[in-house]
Design goal:
single chain; 171 residues; alpha/beta; Leucine Aminopeptidase, subunit E, domain 1; 6-stranded mixed β-sheet; 4 helices; 22% strand; globular
Length: 171
């Protein structure tokens, strides 16, 4: 079931929090920046992973660890954007095919890891510059048939707990 929410994605009680970034991203903007501040170890591990494995857009990277509040968390970096054109530069634009491939990888991960719920922001619509009207159908197509709650944080409100409960599925 897909449910749209207002609130702070990082306060989600979901088993897995997904977010969109570019390969080699510096986590300087939006949700990525909030994640970098909340989980500096995750950011450091992501940068190390990228240097070692040179991931491609459309893939996924999973991190499990403890956030700054001491909670055990799982995060999935969905590589929705092109890498920066130069070291230290901003990640490139997102592409719907990258979003679709990354969501497909997320769907496989949910099944493999028996994940019970997923929270996502409006993927690839900030720095990635995609239109939400193009991204939402991809989420529905890839994740809509999963028998777990999928929480879409479509209205970001820092510090506000979203109401993650069955009802009002996304349209």
């Amino acid at each position: 079931m897909i449910q749209e929410l207002s609130g702070d994605l990082l306060l989600s009680g979901a088993d897995l929090i997904g977010y969109g970034v570019a390969p080699h991203d510096d986590f300087k903007n939006g949700i990525a920046l909030a994640l970098r501040e909340a989980c500096p170890a995750m950011y450091k591990d992501f940068r190390h992973y990228c240097k070692q494995h040179h991931p491609k857009p459309g893939s996924l990277w999973l991190w499990q660890g403890v956030d700054h509040a001491g909670r055990r968390r799982r995060y999935a970096a969905l590589l929705t954007q092109e890498p920066a054109s130069r070291s230290g530069g901003h990640g490139g634009r997102a592409h719907t095919e990258h979003v679709n491939h990354a969501l497909h990888e997320l769907k496989k991960l949910v099944a493999k890891e028996s994940i019970g719920s997923v929270a996502l922001p409006k993927l690839a619509t900030g720095v990635g510059a995609l239109d939400w009207q193009h991204v939402l159908p991809l989420i529905r197509a890839q994740l809509g048939e999963l028998r777990i709650p999928i929480y879409l944080y479509t209205d970001y409100k820092p510090g506000v707990q979203g109401k993650e409960a069955p009802g009002n599925p996304a349209r």
